[in-house]
Amino acid sequence: MAITNRDRIQRCLDELHDGLAPFIEQNLKTGWGANWVQRLDQSGQYPVRKNNDGTVHWDSQLLLKTMFNNWNEVFRDILGHAERSYVSELREVRNNFAHEKPFSSDDTLRALDTAQRLLSAVSAQDQAKNLESMRAELMRTVFQEQARQQTRKKTLTLKTESDSRLKPWRDVVTPHKDVASGRYQQAEFAADLAQVYRGEGEAEYRDPEEFFRRTYLTQGLTHLLTGALQRLSGEAVIPWWSCRPTSSAARSTPCWRCFTCSVTCLPLSLPASMPCLGNPVSPRSRRPTGQCW
What we know:
Elements lengths: L4 H28 L3 H8 L16 H10 L1 H5 L5 H18 L6 H17 L3 H40 L4 H4 L4 H4 L12 H6 L4 H4 L1 H7 L4 H14 L9 E2 L4 H17 L26 E2 L1
Antiparallel strand pairs: 1-2
């Protein structure tokens, strides 16, 4: 599971707690003496929270508040103005985290850097190294995301330039007359064998040569027509064909072709790609499935 910026801020506050608590307690004892806990209670509006054993229950908010409010009395002679600004900035980070405000990658990088600097100043080297590793890992993530964005941007630019060079489809192809005139009907896409028998319908259905010229003979249809012509020629071939079409047009096409062959009996009008009748393709001997014609 990917780590979020809020997760990083939470770990940052945890490292601050582990690194600042010993430092603050030691300097409060040095500056205020044995009664430093009572002095700490009096320095704020309310007494600080205690554990069951009477020790102070430190959290990141109390640690940063204690350093900031008691800077002149306890910490001014140990740390400098830069460290005080770090404390002030980290208090704002902690408040934003507590109020569930979003953190960008830049915000998170700055918070990690500030916390690392403060921990280094109080000699909490282990916690400072942990934050340094987190910051380096986040920087790598940011750089990788920037590289991916640049790659996507270049790809989109190349695609846009390529698309701009393409001509509109109306300039490349010419629609069929019935499509261009708005007379196209899907029902006419499938051949009406009754109209073919009566010599009606469009020319590409009435004229066998035109039909074969305008359509593509697949291996299966070529095999079907070869068998049909062989049957019409009196040869002993299998009398059925197995068809598994996916549309009504695909079903009507083999019917129309066999019908045309049987009505016209003009094998010489078929395309040159048709196998000759003297070298038929042997049909596969298996039980028919699907629609049979």
